[in-house]
Amino acid sequence: MALQSLQITALTAMRARDVSRPSREQQEAADRRPLRDETPRREQPRRGRDR
Description:
Layout: H1 10-20, H2 24-32
């Protein structure tokens, strides 16, 4: 395919930005959830290594 001829217009960029923006409910739920580095790490069981 000729991807070099793909033109991204301002309208396409604005539409992609709106689609990728989370809704208010999703944003509030994400704000309530702790960040990944704030959660305590759980030791993952290593399978097949303890022989």
